[in-house]
Design a protein that fits this description.
304 residues, mainly alpha, 13 helices, globular
Length: 304
């Protein structure tokens, strides 16, 4: 039995790390799609929802319709926030580098720590203060001289907006109860699709022509692999791992994104940018791991 248990844990680690590496590469494929951000997100929601829906159906997991209906209001809000979070993130990719977009996006855990005393009635702790101050110092390092992309300041602001929206998804998800992480995400994808479809139609300025083959393939990869398949790997792994392990492994995502953007896109960061990234990611990770040691961290759905 110990051997079997270790094999299961090894499989869980492999699935979790694979999911994080997949999410770390999303910016590379987003750069290849010549569509408006809302169109990309709409395709991602539809394709990812189909894949995750099939995985959920095959899992044999049983839903409680009473609990699902009870959670509809909060998940409708979090789903809408998730959809616009993706739009903001893909806008960031368009205007600046994947590196800067990723660093800005990973301010989200800091936003959650700062907002939790107000929205979740959690007390302000020394851990939260240290994490927030470290992230603020990191932002000062990075924003002093933004560069890279067609409009780095605009792109970085979109990244920060995506972080705030991601944080709102996390805070709203804490209000959901009685249903699994996969059920939460499926309902969020449905809500995101219902919100993003009219938004994409209203704001569309470039028509609805199919992108070239490379762009179509990249969109398929983002929808099927980065959304549906990676979410399946994530949810099938976290039940067998401790919350602190999941929190630690989640930082493979931004670190791999910085590595991939350097190797495949030729993006380079200055020393001050690396210092800023270390302060932001380190502050967020310190806050998450410290909360988990105290038994306060709850496994959340991962926004990728």
């Amino acid at each position: 039995r110990p051997v079997t248990f270790m094999n299961e844990r090894s499989k869980a680690y492999t699935k979790l790390i694979t999911a994080m590496l997949i999410w770390g590469s999303v910016g590379l494929f987003a750069k290849m799609i010549p569509l408006e951000s809302a169109q990309i997100v709409l395709g991602r929601v539809i394709l990812g929802g189909i894949v995750l829906g099939i995985a959920y159906a095959l899992s044999g997991e049983k839903s409680s319709w009473i609990l699902l209906k009870k959670n509809i209001p909060v998940l409708a809000l979090s789903g809408a926030a998730m959809g616009f979070n993706w739009i903001a993130l893909f806008e960031a990719y368009k205007f600046t580098t994947v590196s800067l977009s990723t660093i800005a996006y990973y301010c989200a855990p800091i936003v959650v720590m700062a907002a939790s005393p107000l929205f979740l009635k959690e007390r302000v702790t020394k851990t939260k203060v240290i994490g927030i101050l470290a992230a603020m110092a990191g932002l000062v390092c990075i924003t002093g001289d933004l560069s890279g992309g067609s409009d780095p300041k605009r792109g970085f602001l979109f990244g920060l907006l995506a972080a705030v929206l991601y944080a709102s998804v996390t805070l709203l998800n804490k209000k959901a109860s009685g249903i699994s992480g996969m059920e939460i995400t499926l309902m969020q994808l449905l809500a995101a699709g219902l919100v993003i479809l009219p938004y994409a139609v209203i704001t569309n300025q470039s028509g609805w022509a199919m992108p070239p083959l490379s762009g179509t393939l990249a969109l398929l990869v983002i929808g099927v692999i980065h959304t549906g398949f990676a979410l399946y790997l994530y949810f099938s792994s976290i039940q067998q791992l401790q919350g602190q392990t999941v929190a630690l492994c989640s930082y493979i995502d931004p670190c791999s994104a910085l590595l991939f953007s350097a190797v495949f896109l030729g993006e380079r960061m200055a020393v001050k940018d690396f210092a800023g990234a270390a302060l932001i990611l380190g502050g967020a990770l310190y806050g998450e791991l410290a909360r988990d040691r105290k038994g306060k961290t709850k496994l959340e759905t991962k926004d990728f």
